[in-house]
Amino acid sequence: MSVDLSQFHQVFFEESFEGLDVMESQLLEMDPADVDDETVNTIFRAAHSIKGGAGTFGFMPISEFTHVVETLLDEIRSGQRVMQPEYVDLFLQSVDCLRGMLSDMQQGNEPEKERPAQLRAEFETILHGAAPVAEAAPTEEEKGSGWLIRLTPYPDLLRTGNEPFRMFRELIDIVGEEHCEIEADTSKLPEFTSLNPEECHLAWQIRVTREIPLADIKVVFEWVEDECDLVYEPLGDVATASPEETAPAVSDTSDAEGIQVPEKVAAAIAETPKKSAEPAAPAKAPKKANAESSSIRVSIDKVDSLINMVGELVITQSMLGQLGQDFDLSRLAKLQEGLSQLEQNTRELQESVMKIRMMPISFAFSRFPRLVRDLGNQLGKKVNLVTLGEQTELDKTVMEKISDPLVHLVRNSMDHGLETTEKRLAAGKSADGTITLNAYHQGGNIVIEVADDGAGLNEEKILKKAMEKGLVPESANLTPEEIHQLVFLPGFSTADAVSDISGRGVGMDVVRRNIQALNGSIEVRSSRGTGSTFIIRLPLTLAILDGQLVQVCEATYIFPLVSIVESIQISRRSLNHVTGSQYVMQLRDEYIPIVRLDEIFGLRDNVQDIDELMLVVVEGDNEKIGIVVDDLLGQQQVVIKSLEQNYTKVSGISGATILGDGTVALIIDISSIGRNITPVKKHQGKSDQAA
Amino acid sequence: MTEAATIHCGNRLSIDQVEGLYQKLEAAVLSGGDLTLDAGDVHFCDTAGLQMILSLRKTLAGTGNDISWSAVTDVLKDTAGYLGIRKSLNLPE
Fold first, then answer.
1. A165: which chain B residues are within 8 Å (Cβ-Cβ)?
2. What is the pTM of this model?
3. Is A112 contained in some domain?
C-alpha cells in the first residue's frame, strides 16, 4: 500500500488555519491577570495539533516553530509559569507568523525564515530566563530526580499517524540530549516473512537522567496514552548509572541475533539544530492570512437536504417520463401538474445548492477583535468591539471579497471616527469608544453596518476639502447627506496627517468600487457628535442576480435590479442636446447624461426617434446615467454565466445568462457604461443646470 | 561468492511506502545471500520503515547473512538515533 500524503495537505492547512483562529480568539479573550485553565488548555491543544500535523506531513519549519510556542504554553498550563501580558502579545505574533508560514507552504513556497527565528529567540529567552513562577512550586516528588519511561505501543499506533521518533525528539528537546537515553526492545519483532510492516512491534524504555517535573514528560506522550502501555517510574539512585548497568533491571533488550545494543541518543543526533540565540528584532506587520480558500465545510444537514431535493426531482422526472410515453390530451392536467412539481423541485434544489455556499458572517467578523485590539494600542484609544448578527449567512465568495473593505472601514472608523479619550471625556462621552459590526438580511440582500460612536462626519470640513480638490464646484449647494457621500470620491481625504492606518486619500473610493464589483452598494449616515454608520448592501450570492429584462431592437439585455433608480418614458422636452448625439436629461433638479444601448452595441442602422423609447435611470460609481431602451420586459432572477470564460470579454457587459426560451441575454455592466461617458459630457450637464 | 543484491530504498522509507519496498525486499530475502541497501536518496523515514529493515536484518542473521549500506542519509541516521536502533541497523558512523 502506498499512501500519497499530499492529498491530505489541504485538510491540514485548513485545520491549522482554524486552529490559529481558535488560538487568536482565546488569546484575545484572555485576561492575563486571571487566566482560566481551560482557555490555556484550548490554546495549547490548538498549537499541539498544528505541531503534530506539520510533523506528520514533513512541514518541519512549522513543527519546530510551534514547538517553542507549545513549550511556553505548557509551562503556563502546568503552573510553572504565570501568564504575562507580554506573553499574550508574543503568542499573538506567533499566530500571525504561523499564518504566514502556512500560507507560504500552502502555495508551495519556502516559508519565511527571519521572522520565525526572531520570535523563536524571544521564546527561548523567556524559556531559559528566570520565569515568573506561580506560587505553588512543584513538589520534590513531582519534579523527580529522573524518570524511566516504558513505552510499549499497541500494533496500530503507527497507522494512527503517531510517530515514536517525533515523540522522542520532542522529549530530547525538553530534557536535553545528554539527559536522555533511549533503548529499543526488538524482542517482539517478527521474522521478516511474517512481518506486517505497518504494525508496530518495537517497544522502548527511555531514561531521563535529570530533575524534571513528570508533567513535562507526560505532555510528550499524552496523545498516545490510549494507544500504548505507558509506565513512568522515578529513577532515584539509578539515575546516574549507565544504561548498560541498569539494563538487566529494567528491560530485556538482548536477543539471540545480538543485534540489539542500547544506544545513547546523544551521539547519534549530534546534528540536531541548535537553538537560535539571536536577539529579538522588532515585530513586523503580520502577514495577511490565507484570503481565499478553495474548499468549504458544509453541515451534514445541508447535504441531507440536498439529497432529499434530488430524490424529489428524480420522482418527478420519473412521473413525467411515464406520462410522455403514452400521452394524450386527456392527461394534459396531469402533465401541467408534473411540470409545476418540476418547477418547484428545481427552485428548491437551487435554494439548497445555494445554501451550501452560505457561511455565517462570523467568519469575516472573527478577524476584527484582533484588529481592534492592535489598532487601539497603536492609536492609544480604548475601543470596544460589538458584533451583532454573526450567524447571518452570506455566500462564501462574497464573504471573502468583502473582508478587505470591512477592514478598511473599521480602520477608518477607529482612526478618524473615534475621538481620543480626552476629547470623548470632554464631550461627556464614555472614555471607551465603541465600534459595532452588525449584519442582517433585508429584502433578499445582506446588510452589513460598520458603526462608531465617534464625532461623526464634519460636513464643513468635507465640503471645504472637496472644493479645494475641485471635486465639487464652489457654487455647489449640497445637503448634509450629499456631503457625506463625497467621502467616496477618488482622492478624497480629510486626514490632517498621513498615517499608516489611513489618510492617504485612497481607500473609500476603492471600498466603494470593490463593493460595487459585488453588485452591492454603500452609503454613510452620520450625525455630528454621535457617530457614523457605513451601510453596505450586498447580494446574498454572486451566482444569481435579480435582473430587469429590457428589449433593445431584437435583443434582450438584463440590468441588475440593484442599480436601477427608476424607469421613465422619455420626454423630448426634458432633453438637452449637448454635442453630437450626446443628450442630457433634466430629471427633477438634476441633469443626467443619456446613453443609447442601440448606439453602443451598433444594433440599429437608423437611429430611432428617442421620444418613443424608455429610459432606465441607473446609478453606478455614484453617478446617475440614463440608458435608453426600447421596452421594459419582466423582472426575474438569472443565473450568471461568465462571458469571459465562455466567449471573450466584452466592454459594457458583465456576463450572460440563458433565458427560459433558451436564448442568451447579456447582463449590462452599469459601471463600465458609465465610465464610457466622458467627464466633459457629465460636467456639461451640470453647467447647463447652472446656466 | 555471489555478489550482494542491491536494493534502492527510494526517497521515503516510511509507512506510506513500506508495502512496495517490503515486496522488493521479500523477493531478495527469498533469493538468499547478503543484501546491500542504497538509502542515499532517503529524505524521510519513520518507525515503520526502519522497523522493517530491522526485521530484515534479524531474518538474514538467521541464515548467516547480513545487510550493508551503500549510502545512508543523515535523516535516516538521525531517525534511527532517536529510535535507539542506530547500531542495531548496522548503520555506518
1. 46-47, 79, 82-83
2. 0.51
3. yes
